[in-house]
């Protein structure tokens, strides 16, 4: 109500009326108007801007709408480079440790390998002993636990105790040849050996595995052979054989060992038998 009276009073005064006239128009008595004091005819000076009520803002279209104020950009979070560095170090630390551990393991293995190899070699040497027949003129290593037996057709024969099918035999025969090369190549001699094995009634099958040649005492020509033999006498066997000619004698070494599918020749025994094979040679007095 007071606001309505005040607006009417302002309207009268803007049209040149006095405050008293405006109040009388609003229903005040003349005595009440006089009690308020003399009028200044206009409450506004010439240099003052008369009061006007604010006009409501009407938007006729979206184009007239003021642009929205830009939102404040979020403040950047404080960086923790030292923390991320620590994290990266922690991430890399297990990898570094694992690589270091692996390297140490490899070094330990390399350091222990020679001693292990030496131990195996010493053990194998202890299992072998030198046998030399000065009368026939040959020498070789033989398993120390294998015993010497007499057998027709063999110059010397050594057998494993309780397993006679595992044996080392040497046959010495006179020939007209001065060297093994005069008889033929290693492959040719291997074929002759296989043919001789297959002619035996006990042989079921024979197959060459390897052929090689080496130099012996004084440049002596030595042939070496390896083949598999399936026989009714002992079943599957592995045969290592060596031959050379010296002083018009043919020296033939034959090593036989069981090699059954259910119980194949183990690596340790194979290495030992190969040492016997490579040791077969003419003695220095031949």
From TrEMBL:
GO CC, alphabetical: extrinsic component of membrane; photosystem II oxygen evolving complex
Gene Ontology BP, a term: photosynthesis
SUPFAM superfamilies named in the record: Mog1p/PsbP-like
Name the Gene3D superfamilies for this protein.
Mog1/PsbP, alpha/beta/alpha sandwich
Q: Name one GO molecular function term.
A: calcium ion binding
InterPro entries found in the cross-reference section: Mog1/PsbP_a/b/a-sand, PsbP_C
Occurrences of domain PsbP C-terminal (ranges): 127-281
| NCBIfam families the UniProt entry points to | PSII_PsbP (NF040946)
- Under what name is this protein listed? PsbP C-terminal domain-containing protein
Specify the species.
Tetracentron sinense
